[in-house]
């Protein structure tokens, strides 16, 4: 799935890892194993600080100076180890309910992730929400993903909306920074393990505990304002 015809004139763009699916710490452990295997061990806390970045950028940041072959090997190993833990993945509290609530507002639900296509397929299977989703993105759509704005711009294009008719929901500083560059308002959640202070300092408009908390307060967010703006409800 890439886009749905006759979609609404507004969209909420959702990051998935750490926002809708409890997967960030599986990514951390997979990267830990991958870096160790290429002979460049990295502390888990340092990896966690980079989760949400484009994979190439993450490797370059944490293993500075690594050659292209080792970088590619680390990414392949991460993907292998992450997939081995796929059975442990679960939707975060309120994730499906939040998507349903946004769709009921008459606003498009867009999965704006920079995960590779094979990982996106796994995440979509965990969420079981394809019937609610208007469009998706993946790492295959851009050369470099977050914190660059490219993946956000692709998501806007797929939804057929401009930045003023979209809100992004994410869990990482990199989400907020990418959206700032794209001119999209960000609502953040703490379920990815990043502090409220850091998310606010990066520019998040609001910060909620998780998808459930956001869903319960949806009427007080830019998402509800967006639905009213375009006459979706």
Concise synopsis of the structure shown:
The protein has helices at 24-37, 44-50, 55-62, 68-84, 95-104, 117-127, 150-159, 173-182, 196-202, 211-216, 222-229, and strands spanning 11-14, 108-112, 133-137, 166-170, 185-189, 206-208.
Helix and strand arrangement:
Blueprint: E1 11-14, H1 24-37, H2 44-50, H3 55-62, H4 68-84, H5 95-104, E2 108-112, H6 117-127, E3 133-137, H7 150-159, E4 166-170, H8 173-182, E5 185-189, H9 196-202, E6 206-208, H10 211-216, H11 222-229
Parallel strand pairs: 1-2, 1-4, 2-3, 4-5, 5-6
Your description of this structure?
The protein is α/β, with parallel strands linked by helices and about 230 residues long. The chain is about 45% helix and about 10% strand. It has eleven helices and six strands. The chain has helices at about 25-35, 45-50, 55-60, 70-85, 95-105, 115-125, 150-160, 175-180, 195-200, 210-215, 220-230, and strands at about 10-15, 110, 135, 165-170, 185-190, 205-210. Helix 6 links the parallel strand 2 and strand 3 (about 135). About 50% of the residues are buried.
Strand percentage lies at 5-15%
Strand order of the largest sheet: 3-2-1-4-5-6
- Major β-sheet, in short? 6 strands, parallel
Instruction: Tell me the series of helices and strands, N- to C-terminal.
Output: EHHHHHEHEHEHEHEHH
Distance between the termini: 26 Å
Could you tell me the mean pLDDT?
92
Radius of gyration: 17 Å
Poorly predicted regions = 1-6
Number of helices: 11
Number of strands: 6
Specify the helix fraction band.
Answer: 40-55%
Instruction: Give the CA-based shape.
Output: globular
The structural class is: alpha/beta
